[in-house]
Design brief:
The complex is a heterodimer of chains A (114) and B (116). Chain A starts with a strand and ends with a strand. In chain A, strands 2, 4, 5, 9, 10 and 11 form a 6-stranded mixed sheet that branches. Helix content of chain A is 0%, strand content 52%. Chain A contains no helices and 11 strands. Chain A is globular and about 45 Å long. Chain A has one domain: Immunoglobulin-like (Sandwich), CATH 2.60.40. Chain A is mostly beta strands and 114 residues long. Chain B is mainly β and 116 residues long. Chain B has one domain: Sandwich (Immunoglobulin-like). Chain B is 3% helix and 49% strand. In chain B, a hairpin with a 5-residue loop joins strand 4 and strand 5. Chain B is globular and about 40 Å long. The chains are: A mainly beta (114), B mainly beta (116). Chains A and B meet through strand 5, strand 9 and strand 10 of A and strand 4, strand 5, strand 9 and strand 10 of B.
Chain lengths: 114, 116
């Protein structure tokens, strides 16, 4: 069935370093992907999205890369800061399948050491 | 900045009791959602709601669940007869349009439900 998974459940980085969080998806029909950040005790917060007609999208300090050949998604955070410490989820959906059924991955916990 | 607000933040109930979770979506949004997250697990879709009716629901959203938009601002999730496995964080979310068209969903901070 459909699934979105993460290669690394936890990631610890030094402040100032770059972080890379990975995600694998299994539904080749998925055409829209989103990264969410969830801080402790809060709801998921939108970070960045990418559509399947793109392979890279940049935001402020964040970049999402999409490799449709191997069904892989990554989130790169530049100059990681303590405030980036959170759990990061990737989520996927596909046109024609839903109006809101985002399929979330299990999450990667990012810890930033000062 | 507009936000989705949820109440209560935490509710403890006895198995078999009815629970209603409340949400006030962002005022100009048209699409509303409930998701849940069992402790330590991934966020799971429950239901989406548009134009005063359910547009999609997951397998989790069985007959014990219902949603309602009783007035112009509130969006509620009712669990008729709670079970132990309903213990989770329930997130309400809203968006201006369908996810694929407008992208961003705004999530509330969640209502933690504990069923004893």
């Amino acid at each position: 069935g459909e699934s979105v998974g993460l290669h690394l459940p936890t990631l610890s980085v030094q402040e100032g370093d770059n972080s890379i969080i990975n995600c694998a998806y299994s539904n080749s029909a998925s055409d829209y992907f989103i990264w969410y950040k969830q801080e402790s005790g809060k709801g998921p917060q939108f970070i960045i999205d990418i559509r399947s007609n793109m392979d890279k999208r940049q935001g402020q300090r964040v970049t999402v890369l999409l490799n449709k050949t191997v069904k892989h998604l990554s989130l790169q955070i530049a100059a990681t800061q303590p405030g980036d410490s959170a759990v990061y989820f990737c989520a996927e959906t596909y046109y024609g399948g839903s109006q809101g059924n985002l399929i979330f991955g299990k999450g990667t916990k990012l810890s930033v050491k000062p | 900045e507009p936000e989705v607000t949820q109440t209560p933040s935490h509710q403890v109930t006895q198995m078999g009791q009815e629970v209603i979770l409340h949400c006030v979506p962002i005022s100009n949004h048209l699409y509303f959602y409930w998701y849940r997250q069992i402790l330590g697990q991934k966020v799971e879709f429950l239901v989406s709601f548009y134009n005063n009716e359910i547009s999609e629901k997951s397998e989790i959203f069985d007959d014990q669940f219902s949603v309602e938009r009783p007035d112009g601002s509130n969006f509620t999730l009712k669990i008729r007869s709670t079970k132990l496995e309903d213990s989770a964080m329930y997130f309400c979310a809203s968006g201006q349009g369908q996810i694929l068209n407008t992208g961003e969903l705004f999530f509330g901070e969640g209502s933690r439900l504990t069923v004893l």
